[in-house]
Amino acid sequence: MVRNLNHDTFLVIRYVKRRLTVMIDIDGKHEWRDCIDVPGVRLPRGYYFGTSSVTGDLSDNHDIISLKLYQLTVERTPEEEKRDREVFLPVVDNLKLPGLEAPLEPMSGLALFLIVFFSLVALVFAIVIGVIVYNKWQEQSRKHFY
Fold first, then answer.
1. Per the UniProt entry, what are the Gene Ontology biological process annotations, in alphabetical order (predicted)?
2. Structural domain contains residue 23
């Protein structure tokens, strides 16, 4: 939607009171359209902004003309201030992040026994097959008289 346009496209990212809002102007009309609005976002302090057009295996060429950052002054209660200082990892309330699933329950004793038992049976079977194949190979190599 933003490729090969004759006008500049704009993006606004706003983070105020644990709400992340992204708005775009890709039509060149100087009118903002909502892109996303996510409440309950908790970001840690002391990080930096960066830009990239890399999207996994693909990349694209974008010219960043300007990047303007503003610190908004928002009245906070001491409780909100303390809560914001305690954030060390980015988190979104009521959103399950990939890779942070609940730990799996441990296996039952019967399941563990069956896994070990069938693993040993398969190992013994593989050893028996290996010995049979090795003996057949040795018999064939002894039969050659030159």
1. endoplasmic reticulum to Golgi vesicle-mediated transport
2. yes
Task: Examine residue 95 and state whether it is found in any structural domain, yes or no.
Answer: no
User: Using one digit for the tens of pLDDT, what is the confidence trace for 53-87?
Assistant: 666 666 667 778 888 888 777 787 888 777 777 77
The count of domains in the chain is: 2
| Domain annotation covers residue 75 | yes
Token representation of residue 109: 């004793």
Query: How many Cβ atoms sit within 10 Å of the Cβ of residue 138?
Result: 9
CB count in 10 Å sphere of residue 98: 5
Both structure tokens of 69: 């950052």
Quote the pLDDT of residue 133. 94
The per-type count for the chain, helices as H runs and strands as E runs, is 2, 5
pTM of the model: 0.53
70 with 111, same domain: the answer is: no
Three-state secondary-structure class, residue 112: helix
In a domain, 100, yes or no: no
Q: Are 58 and 35 in contact (CB under 8 A)?
A: no
